[in-house]
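Lab meeting prep.
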Amino acid sequence: MDKNNSSENQEQEEQVVNPWEVSAKGKIDYDKLIEKFGCQRLDQSIIDRVARLTGRPPHVFLRRAVFFAHRDFNEILDAYERGEKFYLYTGRGPSSEALHLGHLVPFMFTKYLQDAFKVPLVIQLTDDEKCMWKNLTVEESQRLARENAKDIIACGFDASKTFIFSDFDYVGGSFYKNMVKIAKCVTYNKVVGIFGFTGEDHIGKVSFPPVQAAPSFPSSFPHLFTGMDNLRCLIPCAIDQDPYFRMTRDVAPRLGYHKPALIESLFFPALQGETGKMSASDPNSAIYVTDSGKDIKNKINKYAFSGGQDSVENHRKYGANLEVDIPIKYLGFFLEDDAELEYIRTEYGAGRMLTGEVKKRLTEILTEMVERHRRARAAVTDEMVDAFMAVRPLPNMFR
């Protein structure tokens, strides 16, 4: 008994994945994570089905298994095929002024889902969560939520189908009723088992999970979904958010709702290598959407972990180790052209292409992407933020 416990503890120490901490001794073992969380891998048949149902090529994040796991995504597709609607729900915890590329990944994918399926979207800004976990003041959390909203809007969401809300502003009424119903279904032991809270955690943390669960139920948004309690919800998110929705899926049938479906992504690796998420406290661990072209070039050349050999001679002889090479990983996220990516992988892996050439191509792609985002964000006014966050009906949300 004790022996099993110690091996289990050892395994847990080697890999920690929860909404507040992602760390591993080496690379994150996603197979182990899928097994532990109890979700499924997204297979090719589902990707083909998405392409068929939407009439457009699958997003690069689907083709390359950036979004790699799911819960009940097939049921969403079944319902859609029968002509039933669904809505999307995703979110952001506003803990910093600027977003890095890893923060953009779920929003880029959510925009694709909104466009492809022509469905409404609710985006939760958990300013209350960050106030409790990051020790920010209420006012600072609210300010950061609005700043982050500008970056989210800059991803190109459709204002006629999108409602962005901050918890401090929106929670109340029907939303709060659902929070209380959810809270009554989850024992203290259960929440400790799911989230690992300890006696040292303040009660705000223990009471927060229902806030993130409530948007999974359509009745939390009476201005959008009155009389649509049967509407399904699909949540695109990084896999570290899964514990919240395991809890939500557990209580949904008891409250008379569909279990929310999830489609979950890998973590975007830090420049220094794949040992989890990037650290907000280390600006050199990530490319930020506020970085200049010079910053991007410098970070990639100086900090991006290379799988190339230690000398040109050895590199030509042995080729690059693509498994650990960060520029190759980043190209896998952001280089749209499958043929070009395959060419770079082949040539670099064989030693015919040098690290410098791969980093140069990545710098071009990221500089263009960040510049495009910066222009889009500069065009987002306070009035636009107010418009997206206004509590209003969306009469064209399913058209």
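Slide two material, second protein:
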Amino acid sequence: MDTVTKLAAQRAVVIFSTSSCPMSHTVIRLLIDFGVNPTVHELDKDPRGREMERALAKLLGRTPAVPAVFIGGKLVGSTENILTLHMTGSLIPMLKNAGAIWV
């Protein structure tokens, strides 16, 4: 859990993903389209990936644990949370407050 928390706090937007997860790619693409430069940790390519995946599953309360999106060091959730924030107009202000975008 400490590894996840430390990594999530290092950048404005951090996404924990796997290289083959289509929902992770969707969230990453959406954020990039807004001008965000997210830090992406692909768990299947990290030697600590399994440990981090277990920690994320515990934080999220579900599996699969990816994508797990942190904005401003806080866990926002997964794809459905990001899309809901976007559709309600809350995502852009959240990204601005975290310093992820400046528009």
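Talking points for slide two:
The beta strands are 13-17, 39-42, 68-71, 74-77.
The first helix runs from residue 2 to 8.
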